[in-house]
Amino acid sequence: MSRINLQNVTARINTTSFLQDISLQVRVGEHWAIIGANGCGKSSLGRLLCGELEIIAGDGQLPDRSEYVSFEKVTELLDYEKKLDDSDFIGCFDPGTTAQQFICGNRAVDREKLDQLSKQMNFGAILGQGLKTLSTGEMRKVVICRALLQEPELLVLDEPFDGLDHDSCVVLREVISRCINDGVRVVLILNRFDEILPEVTHIAYLKDCSLFVAGPKEEILASEALLRFHSFHYTLPPRLPGDDGRKEPVARPGDPPLIEMKNVTVRYGDHSVLNGLNWTVKRGEHWTVAGPNGSGKTTLLNLITGDNVQGYGNDIWLFGRKKGSGESVWDIKQKLGFVSTALQQNYRVGVTAKVAILSGFFDSIGVYRKYSRQQEEVALEWLKLLHMEKQRNAPFRSLSYGEQRMLLIARAMVKIPELLILDEPCQGLDDANREMVLKLVDHLGSTGRTQIIYVSHRREDRIPCIKNTLNLLT
Q1: Which of 44, 165, 314, 326 pairs with 404 at a CA distance of 20 to 30 A?
Q2: Closest by alpha carbon to 294, among 118, 454, 138?
Q3: DSSP conformation class of 43
Q4: Are 108 and 151 in contact (CB under 8 A)?
């Protein structure tokens, strides 16, 4: 088995950022967790271990066969699928590459092992579906399955549990344990200490793109100073940026429901995502939308935002008006704030962190009109609130996945919208930022004029102001 040994390595992340002075050995029988705050270089270290970064100083010995699985890999895959989409040309839905075609590629695979993995990870039913129809959690399973079938010496999983429902997380832990027992060296890149598996033997903690501390798991976890450093230490402001303090009632007598869906059905070919759904959201209510991967949570939210055209063929009322009765998508979006993995995947324009937040005022990806001084001041206040003032002029696409997610959350909240829709908002966030976001959303829902619809698989990521739950089943 190939050695993994980095000695005083400096590696290029992009034109302006570097991993610096990295010394790390992953010996046979060792399995590591790499932890740190958003933007500290965790994902870059994972890519370095898999030979995906240029080493410009120091010495590095890396494995011959390695696999790196991350959110960014999924985004690249879905971008490619969109480029190949022929739906408009052929006049009907084009499923594109199926899950099974992607997993197998152009090579022979161990069919028995594929069947075993699909049963273990509970995604056999989606093997024939197109990649672009899969939920975030289903895509994670498919990409991890493909990596496992490559039989790597080193498997690096970047936030493998994000986007997965509880049962799928349990199954994935079992799959990772089997890999370890089969002799595969595993490195987990994590934002949360509570996701460290029992089989992990060592921990590396990164800070500012350098190794802050590394060593045996028990030794690192016993460091109270490190745990305090990584924990939440933040005080909410009395008022969020852009909130003028007006206390208009969210609900008035006789107001129509904010959202009303009657017998809603969404299908792709022979596959039903939603089937006969009835749901009413009254004024003043906050809701959690729950359910396993593939149950239609994101599809439901896209019917509200206008990002799914099948909304116009269903009986859906938004803000007291029937969908398709003459309103434009922009009429709806101006009342909404929205965060999702799909939005982050689509936010590919070359703007700065500040402009990414400002785009929330215009419901656009990027900004294509002049913004006011007041709007700029609100955006700068949000950057300060997120402790990202130093990144105000940094290119959005140069930032880490978690940093991008923080900016998109600010983008969604910047105009204090009538309805805030959050689809796994804490995905990719470290412990401190996760807790900050949950408190910010609860603050907005409890004291502001905004109603909240919230999707999360994490039972611990509860928002106290939300009292209602819609459970979807596959």
Answers
A1: 165
A2: 138
A3: H
A4: no
- Residue 109 Cα distances to 101, 171, 178, angstroms: 11, 22, 19
Tokens of 318: 């938004």
Q: Distance from CA of residue 100 to its chain's centroid?
A: 23
Which phi and psi (to 5°) does residue 312 adopt?
-80, -15
Q: Please say whether the beta carbons of 219 and 226 come within 8 A.
A: no
Which of 145-171 are b and which e, b meaning 16 or more Cβ less than 10 Å from the residue's Cβ?
A: bbbbbeebbbbbbbbbbbbbbeebbeb
Show the tokens assigned to 135: 């939920």
Taking 70 as the pLDDT cut, the residues of the chain under it are: 1, 85-93, 227, 229-234, 245-251, 448
The C-alpha R_g of the chain, in whole angstroms, comes to 23
Residue 309 and residue 316: Cα distance in Å, rounded? Answer: 12
CB 57: neighbour CB atoms within 10 A?
A: 12
Burial 130-141 (b: 16+ CB within 10 A, else e): bbbbbbbbbbbb
Q: Which domains does the chain have, with CATH numbers?
A: 1-65+152-230 (3.40.50.300), 71-145 (no CATH), 259-347+399-471 (3.40.50.300)
> In the β-sheet with 259-268, what is the strand arrangement from edge to edge?
271-281, 259-268, 315-318, 321-322
Taking the C-alpha atoms of residue 374 and residue 36, their distance in angstroms, rounded to an integer, is 35
First-to-last alpha carbon distance for the chain, in angstroms, is 42
375 near 358, Cβ under 8 Å?
yes
Element (H, E) at 91: none
134 CB-near residues (< 8 Å, 6+ apart) = 99, 126, 142, 294
Q: Give the whole-angstrom CA distance, residue 302 versus residue 273.
A: 12
pLDDT of residue 442: 92
The residue count for the chain: 474
Give CA–CA dist 191/468, Å, rounded: 28
Q: How far apart are CA 49 and CA 62, in angstroms?
A: 6
pLDDT in tens, 345-364: 889 899 999 999 999 999 99
Whole-number Å distance between alpha carbons of 348 and 346: 6
Question: Which two tokens mark 293?
Answer: 């991967």
Specify the pLDDT at position 353: 97
User: In this predicted model, what pLDDT tens digit does every residue of 274-298 receive, in sequence order?
Assistant: 999 999 999 999 999 999 888 899 9
Rounded to an integer, what distance in angstroms lies between the CA atom of residue 372 and that of residue 357? 13
d(CA 174, CA 76): 27
The sheet carrying 18-26 orders its strands as 18-26, 4-12, 54-61
Report the pLDDT value the prediction gives residue 86, as an integer from 0 to 100: 60
Q: What is the pLDDT of residue 196?
A: 93
pLDDT for the residue 251 = 64
